[in-house]
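>> Question from a student workshop board

For tomorrow's exercise we were told to take the sequence and the ligand below, predict the bound structure, and bring the output to class. My setup keeps failing. Could a helper post the expected result so I can at least see what it should look like? The ligand is KG4.
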Amino acid sequence: MLTLGIESSCDETAFALVQDGKLLDSVISTQIDIHALFGGVVPEIASREHYRLIGHLYDSLLAKTGIDAEQIDNVAVSRGPGLLGSLLVGVGFAKGLVAGTTKKLIGVNHLHAHLLAAGLEQDIEFPALGLLVSGGHTQIFLIRAADDFVELGKTLDDAAGEAFDKVAKMLNMPYPGGKYIDQLGKLAEPDTKRFTRPYLDNTNLNFSFSGLKTALNLYIEAHSHLKLPSLNDVGELFNGNRDVAELAELCASFNFTVADTLRVKMQRAITQRKEVGDAVNSIIVAGGVAANSMIRETMAEVAEKNKLTFTLPSFALCTDNASMVAYMGEQLVAKGYSHGLDLDAIPRGRKIPQDYLHSLC
Ligand code: KG4
Ligand code: ZN
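>> Workshop helper replied:
Here is what the output should look like for this input. Compare the format with yours to find the bug.
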């Protein structure tokens, strides 16, 4: 079975071909440089860029793989959550490929696709506890199968990645600045008491990062010498020309606070599942922020402590990509799911409906 995956939910336009659980090839174009000029993703620009690139990228994947459009059995597309205009470009393109053919159309939940992406590289041991940490989302799921995701907790305000990017912006680093905070943090030991780990004094699995962001803002305003003079100076941080010791300690402390907050909630999720008698065999950490070194280390420790398998996608599968969409779509089609040409794009904030055309399950 040959499945084409299409991703256009935010600022990456991407296609991938997956055959029987294996990635054949993929193409991706990122808009990061354009949005960096504005300090964040501009939805109107994002959808126009997707529209401009989508046809060329599709052609380039077919040319690269030598695969003919007729050979494709299924077309899987990220149908949400994401930016509505951007999603519509991918969904419309998918419908165009499927219309008048026997190909199956399958709309994929972008968040679920992130969490199962690692399945392209290693077998996932279900049931799994999945932590999704991306620019737009921070969520914990109990995952029993590709079509059985139960949301256990989510952020009530900012996503972890948003907090990283906003702190980086306060320091005058280019968007998206999460990776700079990570790299600088590696140069120092964290002060584990510098910032309060947010929203832990409860029994739930939700997150709230906006208070931590405010704490960082107050700290940075009071220590404004830590800010970069200009966005263009980011290279200075790593070429040894600038004394970054104090800034590195701030970044390490922030990395620690986020990672340790995620640790407490994941440990709580494991304990709560045990209490209700639910089996959990593995932990999956996915999404762009799963690239963060302190978060990766901390989650590996949680898995080890609880004797669970630790599943972490490689970096290219952590950030937005179409391989995960094709992989997820293939599994759903194999279970008998597909969508009609009335498939709707669902923006962030709206619940994704289980509106499959038919299901064999
Ligand atoms: O999953 P993703 O590519 O896009 C969304 O679907 O949101 O995640 C992007 C986010 C950005 O906020 C970016 O700053 C963050 O992932 N990120 C990191 C690191 N690398 C990417 N955050 C912290 N440490 C990193 N190393
Ligand atoms: Zn994503």
